[in-house]
Structure to design on (237 residues):
């Protein structure tokens, strides 16, 4: 916490912090540090919008609002706690990303489920489970994978019925790569998938360097979040 401006000797506010300053505390003029911080902002926004439940966004987060580390600005009726609307143009790319995330969420019923899922139900078309945690090499995460300290990449498959038809389903795979290197990720396939779809396409890439390596393969960039949706037969990737 950086609450010195509150006049309480930095004793106020929650003392437990799980932030990552990317090597420099506070403001930085280092382009590499700022690039990593900007990517972290995109990753966190993506994680919010691609999670179940109602996305909770603080006004100004869509344009990188900051309180410079003050986590208890209750007494700061000044620039520290105000929304700086001059950032709207300077952070246009981030604003556009938030709009894209909102549209992506609205397009995928699997991101707005009204009940808990446990992997028991399966889609009528693909046969995919309603939820499945994926390892980069393909298939479900194992108990060993979850406890592997070197594992920095995991995928999440969600499958849900389309509201207008029980013969179609909504499928989305999100890959979270927290590692410092790109990862080759095997996306789900199988007979049911191949009957309805011919490939996957990337619909979100917070790092800007994802690459499709085949109909069911992708290279996910370092420190990035990517989302993939299946492409029906007759539709170009």
């Amino acid at each position: 916490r950086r609450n010195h401006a509150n006049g309480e000797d930095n004793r106020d506010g929650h003392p437990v912090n799980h932030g990552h300053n990317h090597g420099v505390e506070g403001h930085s003029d280092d382009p590499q540090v700022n690039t990593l911080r900007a990517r972290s902002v995109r990753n966190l926004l993506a994680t919010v919008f691609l999670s179940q439940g109602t996305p909770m966004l603080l006004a100004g987060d869509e344009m990188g609002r900051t309180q410079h580390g003050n986590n208890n600005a209750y007494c700061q009726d000044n620039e520290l706690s105000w929304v700086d609307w001059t950032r709207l143009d300077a952070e246009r790319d981030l604003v556009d990303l938030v709009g894209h995330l909102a549209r992506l969420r609205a397009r995928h019923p699997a991101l707005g489920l009204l009940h808990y899922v446990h992997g028991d139900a399966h889609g009528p078309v693909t046969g995919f489970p309603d939820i499945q945690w994926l390892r980069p090499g393909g298939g479900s995460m194992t108990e060993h994978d979850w406890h592997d300290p070197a594992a920095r990449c995991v995928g999440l498959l969600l499958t849900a019925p389309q509201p207008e038809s029980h013969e179609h389903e909504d499928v989305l795979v999100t890959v979270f790569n927290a590692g410092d290197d790109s990862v080759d990720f095997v996306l789900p396939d199988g007979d049911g998938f191949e009957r309805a779809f011919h490939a996957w396409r990337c619909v979100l890439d917070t790092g800007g360097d994802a690459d499709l390596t085949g109909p069911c393969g992708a290279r996910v960039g370092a420190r990035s979040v990517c989302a993939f949706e299946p492409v029906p037969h007759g539709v170009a990737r």
